From TrEMBL:
Gene3D superfamilies for this protein: Amino acid/polyamine transporter I
Keyword RNA-binding included in the entry's annotation: no
Keywords: Cell membrane, Membrane, Transmembrane, Transmembrane helix, Transport
The species this protein was found in: Piscirickettsia litoralis
Ranges annotated as spanning the membrane: 41-62, 83-111, 123-141, 153-176, 196-219, 231-253, 277-301, 332-351, 357-380, 400-422, 434-455
Membrane topology term: Multi-pass membrane protein
Primary localization: membrane
Localization: Cell membrane
Protein name per Swiss-Prot or TrEMBL: Transporter
Length: 468
């Protein structure tokens, strides 16, 4: 007798935690905190021109295409397989560049718990990055059900709890009249200076990933209703926690002392030392590490699952399309672990760890923004294809509302793509930043051409074999 396993179902709460854990990472707070009193302006601008548009568009696409979920399914529905492969490649390869940034954050935070001086040691950082990533790869090999539960627990314990703690500590700081490093009389940035627009890159980088969990739509109970509600609920949580959390760091640390990799631990140390609670530092460090591990889970599995769809369509060798008994894309997960191990060498070539962190963050953001441009284009095309159909969720305002949201999304993506080539003056990225950045961008996109060639040759070989 054949027994078919019932696919795991993801509830509304679990989906919200999965999406929130992917985006609402406490590691993003220091890079945003660099911009002090100008934070509210850039958060509002980033939310209006990127976070809300991506949430609304992802929600409508999930409702219109529940059977073809995720960026690969949406782009394939709109433009066909070739464009879909480019879109999912941009999402996947962007994570290859992004992983070392969150891994470096985890390694630095772990060092603060046991030996703070190691946070500046490149050998330690690389060794920890490789160990943590391979460990998380084996967790993901257990399948979606295991990884989703792991991620939700980590989000509650290691993201929302520390976020709440730093907000409470900041509130007490203000109530007791302690000095603040933020002067809110200078809230409007100088938009004629490039540093003002560079600020937007850090904010946009902290908003990436809204569409990630939609690749698991088929496992969601009543996806046409649940996914849009979860996406919009997540927007509220993200804006609230990240804006106030970043301001909390900016308030207690002088701008020039904020380190991108271990800035959050600096902030907690300042707060807890002031309140004679230094004994709680190791506890906060462990919680933050747990939250960051949970954040990685969806980023590791979702793009690989999307690329699995492309592998099944013949764009990459067949052995990469294989799944294990837990239905996880095992070979793809192992391949990306190898690639990330190689990308980590960036830490050896940059003059500082913060410089490496900024370069990889900016490069990751640039690749992801190209994917979002394709997502907005796919949304326009699918709306036209399904003219007359009324899905359970549509962007408010009918055609006018959809047009406004799409234009805002295109504007946000364009600005971020342009300023990504300019590093901030306060971070040592070396004298050849633009060359390294451009080379990295081209290197990450070129493999698409090779996979297209493979796809055509494999297709011709299949036709010839069938004819024979």
């Amino acid at each position: 007798m054949n027994i078919t396993k019932t696919p795991p179902k993801i509830s509304f709460l679990l989906l919200v935690l999965l999406i929130t854990g992917s985006i609402d990472s406490i590691r993003n707070l220091p890079s945003a905190a660099l911009f002090g009193s100008q934070l509210p302006f850039f958060f509002i601008l980033g939310a209006l021109t990127f976070l809300l548009p991506t949430a609304f568009v992802s929600a409508e696409l999930s409702s219109r295409c529940p059977e073809n979920s995720g960026i690969y399914g949406w782009t394939r529905t709109a433009f066909g397989k070739k464009w879909a492969f480019l879109a999912i490649w941009l999402q996947w390869v962007n994570t290859m560049v992004w992983y070392p940034t969150i891994l470096s954050f985890i390694a630095a935070t772990t060092a603060h718990v046991f030996a703070p001086e190691l946070a500046k040691n490149k050998s330690y950082m690389i060794a920890m990055i490789l160990m943590i990533f391979w460990l998380m790869t084996f967790v993901n090999l257990k399948g979606l059900k295991t990884s989703a539960r792991f991620a939700s627990i980590c989000t509650l314990m290691g993201t929302l709890l520390p976020m709440s703690m730093i907000l409470i500590l900041a509130l007490v700081w203000i109530i007791k009249g302690n000095p603040s490093q933020v002067n809110f009389s200078h809230w409007m940035p100088n938009l004629h200076h490039q540093d003002g627009w560079i600020s937007l890159t850090a904010i946009m980088a902290s908003f990436l990933g809204m569409e990630l969990a939609t690749v698991h739509t088929r496992y969601v109970h009543q996806p046409r209703k649940t996914v849009p509600k979860a996406l919009l609920a997540t927007v509220v949580i993200i804006v609230f926690t990240m804006l106030l959390g970043s301001l909390a760091i900016a308030m207690v640390l002088p701008n020039q002392e904020i380190a991108l990799v271990d800035g959050i631990m600096q902030a907690f140390s300042s707060f807890l030392d002031h309140y004679h609670l230094a004994w709680a530092m190791p506890i906060m460090g462990v919680l933050i590490v747990v939250g960051s591990l949970g954040s990685m889970i969806n980023w590791m599995l979702s793009p690989a699952t999307g690329l699995l769809q492309a592998a099944q369509d013949g764009f990459v060798p067949r052995f990469l399309a294989k799944t294990n008994t837990a239905k996880a894309p095992a070979n793809l997960l192992l391949l990306q672990a190898v690639v990330v191990s190689l990308v980590c060498s960036a830490f050896l070539f940059m003059p500082s760890i913060s410089g490496s962190y900024w370069l990889l963050t900016a490069l990751s953001t640039e690749l992801y923004m190209l994917m979002y441009v394709m997502m907005f284009c796919a949304a326009v095309k699918i709306r036209h294809q399904q003219k007359g159909q009324t899905p359970e969720f549509t962007i408010p305002g009918k055609t006018f509302g959809f047009t406004v949201v799409s234009i805002l999304g295109f504007i946000g993506c364009t600005i971020t793509l342009l300023v990504g080539f300019i590093p901030p003056d306060s971070i040592n990225t070396g004298s050849h930043y633009a060359v390294i950045f451009s080379t990295g961008l081209v290197t990450m996109i070129i493999p698409v051409v090779l996979f297209y060639i493979y796809y055509h040759r494999a297709g011709k070989l299949s036709i010839a074999t069938a004819s024979y």
